[in-house]
């Protein structure tokens, strides 16, 4: 009887889909084995690009006013586009069943645990353009992990990656990231770790899109490690040890595209851990993204990236760990909106695992390279645990930490400014004699190192020159 009911339901869905929204076949199939599905709803009237474009015609007194305008108008646009559907969902959902999240940043709605009756109702709504199943991708794991025993004492001084990007030279001028806020979207952060506890900005500083834990936690260690490289305050692990941090957890074993969007939205105008009380004045300056959705030019995250850029939040992404074959870069790092980071070794050579370009459309990626091999940082086992990891996930936070130093020098930098000073200040890597996309690695930019290996001192010098030209 149940099989017959499901069969009738699937036919009904297919017929309804012809009349109104398109429905992904995976949504139809999921009910053959499950009672509920996690779905992403898109709307015909969505015009987020138009809302963002309006910011270019207006003058804002400061960054906060710009972000507030973006939030207010994207949220209003979503409310107007989605109003009837949100009303329907409010009437249908119960405390035990569906969980609804409005994604104003992309003008979509995410529903966890939608049952078939709910999907049937949604298929009657003409304002909906598409209903898709949530897409899951495996968490990007480091190429190698070596956890050190409790009480492990690393060699005194700064870690090799900190020295390689020349952060101490910028520190000597008085810039260690003070007053700057960075974020990561990752597996979470062990907020009580000795290297991180003093840098956590508690006010609207944490959201868990996975399990809704109220305090920063990390069951896997990846997010704790990347955060340590950005802002860690012990054992010389952090590029910007005086910067503050916030975080959004999007991953456990698997990563959800909808939860990545939700975290990206949260970062623009951070809320409390219940998604209440948004504060656009608390937005971070840069976001570390050591994750990917797919292996080739997926535009699902472009709305988020474009909004970050409009809000002057630097979008820094790992390029991936698929090795040296041409066109192995991952999305969203392969987007022209993202600053994509490859990984290097302590000898300034591209790491063997670091993905290379070009993109599917022939664009050069990565944009930049940074230390990513055998990087020591904080870990999640306990409050004094450290581990050594390798991957472009480890390279990306070096660039975010460096970005924090640059914002410390000049808080009014735009994302375009950040991209320029990072790439113009980059140093050549070791010549490998490789060519991808018709560009040899002896020419810059290329599809191996991008514009080269980041240099904090060279980029800081360019920021200082920029400031002098403005006066």
UniProtKB/TrEMBL annotation:
Leader sequence segment: 1-19
Active site feature: 186, 222, 393
Gene Ontology biological process: proteolysis
Keywords, in A-Z order: Hydrolase, Protease, Serine protease, Signal
Gene Ontology molecular function: any one: serine-type endopeptidase activity
Domain Peptidase S8/S53: 177-452
InterPro entries for the chain: Peptidase_S8/S53_dom, Peptidase_S8_Ser-AS, Peptidase_S8_subtilisin-like
Similarity section: Belongs to the peptidase S8 family.
Entry protein name: Peptidase S8/S53 domain-containing protein
Organism: Allacma fusca
